[in-house]
Amino acid sequence: MSWKPGATPAMLRARAQLLRALRDFFDARGVLEVQTPVLGRHTVTEPAIESLPVTIDGLQAWLQTSPEYFMKRLLAAGSGSIYQIGPVFRAAEQGRRHNPEFTLLEWYRVGFDLEALMVEVADLVQEVMESPRPHVAEYRELMQAHAGVDPWRDDPAQLAERASAVSGIPREQLNRGEALDLLMSGCVEPALADQGPVIVQHYPPDQCALAAVSEVGGVAVARRFELYLDGIEIGNAYEELLDATEQCRRFEADNARRREAGQPIPEPDGRLLEALEAGLPQCSGMAIGVDRLLMHRTGAASLDEVMAFSLERL
Amino acid sequence: MATYSTNEFRGGLKVMLDGDPCVIVENEFVKPGKGQAFSRVKLRNLMTNRVWERTFKSGETLEAADVLDLDMEYVYSDGEFWHFMKTDGSYEQFAADERAVGDAAKWLKEQDVYSVTLYNGSPLNVTPPAFVDLEVVDTDPGVKGDTAQGGSKPATLSTGAVVNVPLFIEIGEVVRVDTRKNEYVSRVRNG
């Protein structure tokens, strides 16, 4: 293996330019840049995200998978709208578009509902990425059109049947969440590949850990949207859950699922819950993978080309 | 028998799938930010050569296939089987049938070395080197002095393979051929 970086000097310059453009975008809007710890005593409980454990003098700690909990504590303490660009870590994620360490842009807008944040994301796509403004698509309609399922009406067996046909995984091995993920990545994402920027909204509530829930068209939907560029998932937005009791209940539900699957059980973050009890201002937040943005901007085929040193070069 | 987990899947790994030995051609890690991880894998079935696309849940395992690539010397054909011998000094011989030899048959020259894939101890596949040097045993007479002009003619080589060669090539000359493309590469000096 060569000592050389994956990114060329031209790519390093493109990365620096992108970071500067992102900072200019938020500075012009009066959003404050912050830095929170990469190493935390707690981590997310979401079953689909595994954190990397670290021991400090016998103390269990975790590399953060996103700066969300710390940033919410800043918000509860009166920071106002904030953004952060920094490294995050996710265990066992490696591939052309995954690296265990990557750069995340995360920002929170106080007083913004999801629709207001959507407008800002469209501005960012237009101004920073110099792409057309995203068009907004409904999760349910995309699933119906491209995967032939209705996640609100079909039962888990029907969803598993369809996902099995698409993936070859026996249907009895697929739960509802896995079936929806397979249909999204196997049927919907390829259909978005030639559509440029797309925002997908109105996800089923069980597909979102920390989002508020509302009713649209007679069904419950999560206050969440995702940004896609040419069919590649770039980022995720939530209208944030403010209720500490509901948050606590979701932590416990996550950990019950983790226990069932034999996954590690991170202790719920008591300080985040205290901050929510003290009062998180109404806000919406978004997280965007900066390395994938750079891939899109430069036409790179893999993260290895846009990172100085991806996992295989460490 | 060893097993491989999805995070060990990479190009070239030989695994068992649906009872057949397969080689992994490509493994793509797929995971939505808020969702489950999967491996979308392309595999070539070594029995049929057909390429399969399968998705596996992250952490699933496949059994390793008892498949081994060995360099072996081609010894002779008895009309039904092609016989190969290990080059490690053991003189151990293996008989490959028509299915295993397949298209490689037309490149087999006695005493040359080929890559033989063994599955459970029997030849599954024979791969010729990318380039082989073979004598032309039949072709139309050469055009004198014509070494630069375009145009080609079919030539039969000592192993029975037929390739298009430039017009100046004569019977008895040795030519280098790219076996993957069935193409003439260059003239090799005689002797």
UniProtKB/TrEMBL annotation, chain A:
Keywords: ATP-binding, Ligase, Nucleotide-binding. NCBIfam families: genX, PRK09350.1. GO terms for cellular component: cytosol. Pfam families: tRNA-synt_2 (PF00152). Homodimer. Residues 12-314 form the Aminoacyl-transfer RNA synthetases class-II family profile domain. One of its GO terms (molecular function) is ATP binding. GO terms for biological process: lysyl-tRNA aminoacylation. This is EF-P lysine aminoacylase GenX. It comes from the Bacteria. It comes from Halovibrio salipaludis. It catalyses: D-beta-lysine + L-lysyl-[protein] + ATP = N(6)-((3R)-3,6-diaminohexanoyl)-L-lysyl-[protein] + AMP + diphosphate + H(+). Signal peptide: none annotated.
TrEMBL record, chain B:
Residues 132-187 form the Elongation factor P C-terminal domain. It holds the Pfam family Elong-fact-P_C. InterPro entries: Elong-fact-P_C (IPR015365), NA-bd_OB-fold (IPR012340), Rib_uL2_dom2 (IPR014722), Transl_elong_fac_P/YeiP (IPR020599), Transl_elong_KOW-like (IPR013185), Transl_elong_P/YeiP_cen (IPR001059), Transl_elong_P/YeiP_CS (IPR013852), Transl_elongation_fac_P (IPR011768). GO terms for cellular component: cytosol. Pathway: Protein biosynthesis; polypeptide chain elongation. Its main location: cytoplasm. The keyword DNA repair does not apply. The modification N6-(3,6-diaminohexanoyl)-5-hydroxylysine is found at residue 34. One of its GO terms (molecular function) is translation elongation factor activity. Residues 69-124 form the Translation elongation factor P/YeiP central domain. May be beta-lysylated on the epsilon-amino group of Lys-34 by the combined action of EpmA and EpmB, and then hydroxylated on the C5 position of the same residue by EpmC (if this protein is present). Lysylation is critical for the stimulatory effect of EF-P on peptide-bond formation. The lysylation moiety may extend toward the peptidyltransferase center and stabilize the terminal 3-CCA end of the tRNA. Hydroxylation of the C5 position on Lys-34 may allow additional potential stabilizing hydrogen-bond interactions with the P-tRNA. It is found in: Cytoplasm. Keywords: Cytoplasm, Elongation factor, Hydroxylation, Protein biosynthesis. One of its GO terms (biological process) is peptide biosynthetic process. HAMAP family: EF_P. Involved in peptide bond synthesis. Alleviates ribosome stalling that occurs when 3 or more consecutive Pro residues or the sequence PPG is present in a protein, possibly by augmenting the peptidyl transferase activity of the ribosome. Modification of Lys-34 is required for alleviation. Belongs to the elongation factor P family. PANTHER family: ELONGATION FACTOR P, ELONGATION FACTOR P (EF-P) FAMILY PROTEIN. This is Elongation factor P.
